[in-house]
Amino acid sequence: MSDRFPRRTAQAVVLCAAAVLLLAFFVELLPRLTRDQRGIASTPVPTGARNATTLPLEPGQRVCLDGVVVSPDSEVLQLMLDPAEPLPAPPLRVTVNGIGYDAAATVRADEHTLRVPLDPPDETLAAAVCVANRGRRTATLAATADPRVLQRTRATPYGGYPLAVAFQATFTEAEPRSMLGSLDTTAERAATFNALGPWALWLLLPLLGLGVPALLLGAYYLALRRPGGSDDDAGT
């Protein structure tokens, strides 16, 4: 005795599955794709990394992250202060320096999340991101001692040796955009990792968005159908 379904029942089950997928797209996925948020240009040291710690900066002290990737979308540098840091924090001088590129800003934080607007470079390059305490008391940056992060970069005091920590730093775009609105930027970034160019991503997206669900539903239908079954088999 076969445990598979006749054609008509299999079609009804697959249509219900397709309706569930469509409902999930409009209820869950579409709002996320159209929600405005600041796009991340690069994440030298991610927020929320393991082995969280702090990096105190004494008055006049400066620390840097070397070899940080900065792109034309790196319009805002986001830093994190220690949640226990009294506010407002001491003024901080932030500089980003690469070959043929220099950007700087002085900020005084009224929140523990510090967003520093910067003039981005015209092209992607490697730079040093430095933070100096220009105040009269200690400022404490949120940092990490995660060994995986420290393999890429770590904080270095001016004129000193690299420390066993790295302060959290993220570059973002200045204006919030939705994921759908930033597809062109995503395609350009993906083109740097393949020889086909941005058109490859534009071709891949509909294949993934439509082709994969269609293949899954087709496989589900074939799995449900009774071998050699027909509509006339439904009553037997």
Q: Count the domains.
A: 2
* pLDDT < 50 stretches: 232-236
Number of helices: 4
- The value of Rg in angstroms is 26 Å
Q: What fraction of the residues are assigned to beta strands by DSSP? A: 25-35%
* Proportion of helical residues: 25-40%
Let me know the average pLDDT: 81
Order of helices and strands: HEEEEEEEEEHEEEHH
Order of strands, main sheet, comes to 6-5-8-3-10
Task: Tell me which CATH architecture of the largest domain applies here.
Answer: Sandwich
Strand tally is 12
Main β-sheet description: 5 strands, antiparallel
CATH level 1 name of the largest domain: Mainly Beta
Distance between the termini: 11 Å
User: Structural class of the helix and strand makeup?
Assistant: alpha+beta
Do you know the CATH topology of the largest domain? Jelly Rolls
What is the global morphology?
elongated
Transmembrane segments: 12-30, 199-223
Keywords: Membrane, Transmembrane, Transmembrane helix
Organism: Conexibacter stalactiti
Protein name: DUF4349 domain-containing protein
